[in-house]
TrEMBL record:
The chain crosses the membrane at residues 7-25. PROSITE patterns: 5_NUCLEOTIDASE_2. The lineage of its organism: Eukaryota, Metazoa, Spiralia, Lophotrochozoa, Mollusca. Its EC number is 3.1.3.5. Belongs to the 5'-nucleotidase family. Pfam families: 5_nucleotid_C, Metallophos. Keywords: Hydrolase, Membrane, Metal-binding, Nucleotide-binding, Signal, Transmembrane, Transmembrane helix. This is 5'-nucleotidase. Coiled coil: none annotated. It catalyses: a ribonucleoside 5'-phosphate + H2O = a ribonucleoside + phosphate. It is an enzyme of class 3 (hydrolase).
Length: 578
């Protein structure tokens, strides 16, 4: 009995001696929100009744606090620092590298939005950052300009321990961004191979930091032996244990513990998005690299967190460069133009209607032939709509916030059956909780869906505006008819899963105009705006959506766009020699 007691005492002492505490601070999907934000991630106004959150100055304060008061602290980012604000639109990756270097990140995994400006837009960022940028599933063999700038993993030396950190990026990046000739391999397979390599070097604490979404993270946690922790991004998932401190509802507890078949468990964390929170996970490891204790939660960066003055000073350097551009008024709206993420990715929204109408109108105005001008259909992926216009003046900054991706426009000819297949893709990932950005807004179409049916069979009815009729009208979609359609180059090349377009479309005309420029011209010419909902998108069988959500009123098929189109068409017809 005494021998047994002595054995347990020695075991306890060994574990005490060889325990290792690590604090992992983490961010994901910041999307260039270096200025403070409101509770929804938009620009924070001056209304004191609506509190502000986040921002680089609060992040710096909280990170420094941890580093001063907690041993063995690392700061990691799970991707998508790029894109989403005027600051990024104006300064690109320069703003991101400046602020990330200032806060002193230890490592970053690439997100899909880091590629939005192509390889040429990413390389300067990679050259400027002072920390490793990682992703193990990217094959750069065909992109020499980026070779050597992205590592599969890195090893951090923390408190005398070697911590392996593996990066990964969603394999969907090729279809949702602009990564040139890069190839994105399977995330789980790639992470498994890199974890095995690190283990062979004697590293027994391994963290995966990546950008593929919560569901992929959980699958990876269950399937990849040797992982201890996964820090994720991409799905903007809010994990929290206890009563949530703001308006976000937790998807699950923080961290999510995922069991493996071998009896081990992996912790999965994410901190929502937009820099509103700072994820903070405290973990204790034994000498074998096994987790023995853990605790933590995302920390809300609210007004109780002071702003770091040096961070504010850097912001003040950038702010004057933006003010004159930000404040210039482009137009005026009589109604709220609602571009809310959840709204526009689930149903018709008046912001989507206006953007789609503007694309058609621009093509009518600048068509180089009568045939090209007779295009009354446009497609807009809702993932490209990033903000709203409040009632009142619309500035250039507001426009860039709505459409920050700098896509160009193209017109294509597509057979009716392929357009119908594209509309099926639009609702292939429809969800009431986490809808996909592939959901289409459009002009010149009226579509009825039944979400209760299997994927690929959800389009019930399609009416398309006739381009050959003396007076344009809506007629049933004909599978054999070729339809002229205007869209972004992103969709035209198959982005967001629209391979049916890239594989089957006949390129008709490269408009070449930036989407923001097209929207700006439309707003300038059509102000004051009063777009509403027109029943362009309808649902049946239990998924009926009330029409009056969004703009607050409904305009009918005899819309302003159709009237404008008819006037323009009549003018052009009078110029054609008889």
């Amino acid at each position: 009995m005494k021998m047994l007691q002595r054995y347990y005492l020695v075991s306890i002492l060994v574990n005490m001696v060889f325990s290792f505490d690590l604090t992992i601070l983490h961010t994901n999907d910041v999307h260039a929100r270096y200025e403070e934000i409101n509770q929804y991630g938009d620009v924070c106004g001056k209304d004191t009744n609506n509190p502000c959150f986040g921002g680089i100055a609060r992040l710096k304060t909280k990170v420094d606090h941890f580093r001063s008061n907690t041993t063995n602290t690392i700061l990691v980012d799970a991707g998508d620092q790029f894109q989403g604000t005027l600051l990024f639109s104006a300064l690109g990756g320069t703003a991101c590298s400046t602020f990330m270097n200032f806060v002193e990140y230890d490592v970053m995994a690439l997100g899909n939005h880091e590629f939005d400006r192509g390889i040429a837009g990413l390389v300067p960022f990679l050259d400027n950052v002072t920390f490793p940028v990682i992703s193990c599933n990217i094959d750069d063999a065909m992109e020499p300009t980026i070779q050597g700038l992205i590592a599969k993993s890195t090893v951090l030396s923390v408190g005398g321990k070697q911590i392996g950190v593996i990066g990964y990026t969603t394999k969907d990046t090729t279809s949702i961004s602009n990564p040139g000739s890069l190839t994105f391999n399977d995330e789980i397979t790639s992470v498994r191979a890199e974890a095995t390599r690190l283990q062979s070097q004697g590293i027994n604490i391994i963290i995966a930091v990546g950008h593929a979404g919560y569901e992929v993270d959980k699958q990876m946690a269950a399937q990849v032996e040797g992982l201890d922790i996964i820090v994720g991004g991409h799905s903007n998932t809010f994990l929290y244990t206890g009563d949530a401190p703001s308006n976000e509802s937790p998807v699950a507890g923080y961290p999510t513990m995922v069991p493996q078949a071998n009896g081990d468990s992996v912790l999965v964390v994410q901190d929502y998005a937009y820099g509103k929170y700072l994820g903070a996970l405290n973990v204790t490891f034994n000498d074998q690299g096994k987790i023995t204790q853990y605790a933590g939660n995302p920390i809300l960066l609210d007004s109780s967190v002071p702003k770091d003055p040096d961070a504010e000073a850097i912001l003040n350097i950038f702010r004057p460069q933006l003010e004159s551009f930000k404040n210039k008024i482009a137009g005026h709206t009589l109604v709220k133009m609602d571009g809310a993420r959840l709204l526009c990715r689930q149903q018709e929204c008046n912001m989507g209607n206006m953007i789609a109408d503007g694309m058609v109108y621009q093509n009518l105005r600048h068509a180089d032939s009568l045939a090209t001008s007779r295009i009354f259909i446009s497609l807009v992926n809702s993932g490209s709509i990033r903000s709203s216009f409040d009632q009142g003046n619309i500035t250039f900054a507001d426009i860039i916030q709505v459409q920050p991706f700098r896509n160009t426009l193209e017109t294509v000819r597509l057979q009716g059956r392929h357009l119908r297949a594209a509309l099926e893709n639009s609702v292939s990932r429809w969800s009431p909780d986490d809808p996909s950005g592939r959901f289409l807004q459009y002009s010149g179409l009226r579509v009825t869906y039944d979400i209760t049916k299997p994927v690929g069979q959800r389009v019930v009815d399609v009416m398309a505006m006739c381009s050959d009729c003396p007076v344009p009208e809506y007629l049933p979609l004909n599978d054999d008819t070729m339809y002229g359609i205007i869209m972004s180059n992103f969709i035209a090349k198959g982005g967001d899963g629209y391979d049916v377009i890239s594989d089957n479309a006949q390129q008709d005309h490269i408009v070449g105009d930036l989407d923001t420029d097209v929207l700006t011209e439309y707003i300038q010419e059509m102000s004051p705006l009063y777009h509403g909902l027109e029943g362009r998108i309808k649902f049946v069988n239990g998924t009926e959506v009330e029409e009056c959500v969004g703009a607050g009123f409904v305009t009918r098929p005899s819309s302003f766009l159709l009237l404008a189109a008819l006037v323009l068409l009549q003018v052009m017809l009078t110029r054609v020699p008889s």
